[in-house]
């Protein structure tokens, strides 16, 4: 009886490993750079599975077959998320909307850089001269 359960458990582990390998090889397209429409980060997205690790562990501990089904579902439903803010509102850079978002965010960053840039030597000298005239 114990040999049959061990064989069943071993078979489930092997099937899960094969399914995991197949699912992760199909999700390699997430590696392209994308722009986050929420925080303007341009980077390679992180892959985050849907569902809950806690539910997966409980299903594996209590029931082998539902745990296997849930694990396969989680491994097959990865989503691309922003590495900075965690949002899944990402746009590929090679699309018209992605290029537009990246250009808008770059213009906004340049404007902010100009506002917060440290004054040049000439600007400091002019400010000192104005203060001396008073």
Automatic annotation (TrEMBL):
<keyword id="KW-1133">Transmembrane helix</keyword>
<keyword id="KW-0812">Transmembrane</keyword>
<keyword id="KW-0472">Membrane</keyword>
<feature type="transmembrane region" description="Helical">
    <location>
        <begin position="53"/>
        <end position="73"/>
    </location>
</feature>
<feature type="transmembrane region" description="Helical">
    <location>
        <begin position="6"/>
        <end position="23"/>
    </location>
</feature>
<protein>
    <submittedName>
        <fullName>Uncharacterized protein</fullName>
    </submittedName>
</protein>
């Amino acid at each position: 009886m114990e040999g049959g359960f061990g064989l069943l458990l071993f078979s489930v582990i092997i099937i899960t490993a094969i399914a995991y390998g197949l699912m992760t090889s199909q999700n390699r397209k997430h590696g392209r750079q994308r722009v986050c429409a929420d925080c303007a980060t341009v980077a390679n997205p992180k892959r985050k599975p849907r569902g809950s690790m806690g539910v997966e562990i409980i299903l594996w501990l209590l029931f082998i077959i539902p745990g296997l089904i849930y694990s396969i579902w989680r491994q097959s439903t990865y989503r691309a998320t922003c590495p900075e803010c965690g949002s899944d509102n990402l746009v590929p850079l090679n699309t018209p909307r992605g290029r537009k978002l990246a250009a808008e965010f770059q213009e906004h960053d340049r404007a902010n850089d100009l506002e917060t840039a440290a004054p040049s030597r000439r600007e400091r000298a002019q400010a000192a001269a104005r203060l001396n005239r008073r």
